[in-house]
Amino acid sequence: MEKNMKKNESIEIKRVLDILVSKKVIVLCILIVFMVFGYIYTYHFVVPKYQATSTLLLIPNDTYESRELTNIELLINSELITTYSSIAQNSKILKQTIRNLGLDMTEKQLLSQMKVRIVDESYIIEISISNTNPQTAMEITNELSSVFLKEIKEIYNLNNIGVVDEAQLPMQPYNIHHTKDIAIFLIAGMVISFAYIMIIYVFDNTLKKEEDIENYIYVKSLGSIPVYHDKNQEIIQTKNGKNYITECLNNIRTNILYMNSAKNAKTVLVTSCTPQEGKSWVSANIATSFAKTNKKVLLIDADMRKGRAHRIVKVKNIKGLSNYLQVMTGNLKKDIRLGKDYIQETKIPNLHILPNGTIPPNPSELLGSSNMKELIALLKTAYDIIVVDAPPCKLVTDSILLSTIMDSTVLVVNAETTKIHELNEVKKSIQTVGGEIIGAILNKKKTKAKSYSESYSYGYGANAEIEEISTTKIIPVTRVLGKAILKLEKTNYHIPREENKYIQKVAEEYDKPETMEKFIKKQNNYLAKIVNAVNNMKIQSNQQELKDDTSTMREIIREEMTKIDYTEQIVQMNDMLTNLKDSYLELSNKIQVNNREKESANDENIIDFKNLKNRKRITQR
User: Fold this and answer.
1) I want to staple 412 with a disulfide (CB 3.0 to 4.6 A). Which of 118, 140, 187, 279 is the partner?
2) With left for phi above 0 and alpha for psi between -120 and 50, is residue 391 left, alpha or beta?
3) Which of 409, 414, 423 lies closest to 275, judged by CA?
């Protein structure tokens, strides 16, 4: 637990640092702007002020020259010096000082320039005056100290305080600190920059580059695709085979093949978090890229709600996947032969498409049905690669269901739009049901066209090498399906059905004689308990009591019946149903053959009475 917490904390810090690096130009500009503001402020807006200070000392006792002070005298003197400091700011003293010097200011203005301070743990009072004119500051300070001493003598009739240091003419302004001011502004800029980074961290938690996929989602990045704007020609492979986007798609195709090579995977599910992330466009172009390698490729549009794969490859969507699934019979040859009515050729050689078809009322049930599993298994015998365009995972569970029957799953990420936590949720949902995610594709990455030519020897310009139009003929669907039927006949192919692993394990265990004996003995014990419970029930004449006893008996029987393990019976029942289905199919085929033979025999024995009548008329003439 602690390790996971530390790991998450390091990830968060790394993300903050990544944001800082990505926004380093903006952060640097903020710091420079604040430094410039600090320079302008300290050199042009700060008014120089001068401070003059006079020091006054409270004399404990002027009558005795040498003797130790008692605690009472110390307390009195400490209170007295506090009183003196308050008197120094008295209105009468301020008025007298202004009058003596003929100052053009009010008492409030003079008080704002004045500062009285008691030096810690001493009997010293410092009176300071701040002013833009050093001479004025010195004169006011000395005059204020003189008026203050006279006022103390008049009030207390004491001569126990005197001037130690008179105010001197200040030579340097006390409020000018250029380095300090600039440093303060620089710190303020750093605070603003940090706040800016944290705002981005909180509100802009999107994936922006391939490294983000691996660092925050822990999924292999299969590559990135820049923004593509041509909506009239969405299959770019047919237009220009040697541009930057084509190379990106070819690189992704190679990575998918590499990730699937270990398990000889044929089916690739392509999905995303939310709509408008480009999964359909990516699916169609990846399928086209596979088709360019002379592989027989099938693109399946499994988005039965808003599928648009047929518009990308420019075919009609009259019948498709939903219709195909509803007419499947369970007969392998017949089911794969039905594909010619739903699978269509495209203008791209080696690429066929199975559109989504009519929108059904229950898309999730169709995609999660056994018919879907059988259909994918059948089509794998006909095609080398099957690319399935699935709905977004955040809206419906269709893709999560499909991921369980596909060999691999690829996530499409929209750069600067897909959020990290949403993609993590989708990843967790797919992996929870057993789906295998082989990687993610960063789509709509913002890249300047100039960078294409810097990374590659060809680009979008006039010097780009244009791929020659392929002379490969379009392979009909019937030919591909026909070869699959021949393969089924030669290999006696059957679709493997996934049995419940728990039932298989229990069945294997009950095959052992000793286990079977225990099972029979256990069931006999349960039956004996039920019989004893029934025999112990007391039959009473009262109907209500009889009803209560009957309810009690039923509860006991129900409780005992729940303890019985019917696993063996379930296994036997499954075997019986499977054998029954096979027998039914075999009998149905025999009946169809016999019917055809009878029909052909009847056709031979039918007498054409009309022709016979015409012949009779000709003979009579």
Assistant:
1) 279
2) beta
3) 414
Largest CA distance in the chain: 180
Indicate the pTM of the whole model: 0.58
> pLDDT at residue 68 above 80?
no
pLDDT in tens, 387-435: 999 999 988 889 999 999 999 999 999 998 899 989 999 999 999 999 9
Quick one: tokens of 503?
């039932």
Contact between 217 and 427 (Cβ < 8 Å): yes
Spell out the residues 6+ positions from residue 37 whose beta carbon is closer than 8 angstroms to its own: 185
Tokens 């029909």 appear where? 599
Per the structure block, which two tokens stand in for 297? 């490729």
DSSP three-state, residue 497: coil
pLDDT digits (tens, 9 = 90+) for 163-181: 889 999 999 999 999 999 9
Helix and strand counts by DSSP (H, E) for the chain: 24, 12
Helix, strand or coil for residue 474?
Answer: coil
The type of residue at 581 is: K
* Cβ atoms of 388 and 269 closer than 8 Å: yes
Residue type for position 108: K
| Chain centroid, CA 273 distance in Å | 8
Separation CA 99–CA 19 (nearest Å):
64
The sign of the torsion formed by the CA atoms of 41, 42, 43, 48 equals: positive
Compute how many other C-beta atoms are within 10 angstroms of the C-beta atom of residue 576.
10
State pLDDT tens for residues 16-33.
888 888 889 999 999 999
